[in-house]
Amino acid sequence: MSLALSPEFLGKVRRAMDERGLVCVNYHADGCHPWEDSAEARERHLELAWKHIAAGELLGARTIRIDTGGRDRHWSAEQFDHIAGAFRKFAKRAQDGGYLIGPETHWGATNHPDNMLELHSAVASPAYGILLHMGKDTATSPDEYDRLLAPIAVHTHIDQKTCQSRMPAALGILRAANYRGALSIEHHTGKNEFEEVGAQLAELARGLKLLEGSAGTYRGNPLLSAKDERSHN
């Protein structure tokens, strides 16, 4: 087991988080997606996935992201059945543990709303949902992409393009879908990342203020109505 996944190391991280009042809203796990063409690779990935899930639990993650695998536009029937079966098991453990789990709209088949909606129906667990990387162009428009997937989202990635070109629309779509997860900034350029992420956070804060103003006099969470926030709390 790598140092990063050892209980000793993760325990130190958790203690440091607790000391600072930090919460892990999403634990990302790469390289352990259920589907690979090789049966040996699938077995190896599944073993690693369970280790990452245990790590997320130790860190108190509210959501865990594991990719599906499958690099083509659609999954084959074999791929789909294998992926759905794996996520049913993941979601059962998540439900028992009080957190949420699911894949990201990230690469391959997961970039397409029809696939993600079909998988959501097949897993059929209240502990299952997706990490929505917002504003992709694999539907009729970025807005339509978000509208289709926001109802099943439990976490978000808001990239630079979304921040700069359509933040009010994106946040409005999340509010309309009664989204209750975190708003997470993601940046990819590898240049001036602290400044660029700061700029994106400022755009997000501005968008939330604008959305709050459009909701009337209510000054709670702008993504929820006052009634919804009371039931959420």
Layout of secondary structure:
Layout: H1 7-20, E1 27-29, H2 39-58, E2 63-66, H3 77-97, E3 100-102, H4 113-123, E4 130-133, H5 142-149, E5 153-157, H6 160-165, H7 167-176, H8 193-214, H9 226-232
Parallel strand pairs: 1-2, 2-3, 4-5
Task: Describe what you observe in this structure.
α7 packs across α8. By secondary structure, this protein is mainly alpha-helical. The chain has nine helices and five strands; from the N terminus they run αβαβαβαβαβαααα. The protein has two domains: 128 residues, Divalent-metal-dependent TIM barrel enzymes (TIM Barrel); 76 residues, no CATH class.
At a glance:
With 233 residues, the chain is mainly alpha-helical. It has helices at 7-20, 39-58, 77-97, 113-123, 142-149, 160-165, 167-176, 193-214, 226-232; strands spanning 27-29, 63-66, 100-102, 130-133, 153-157.
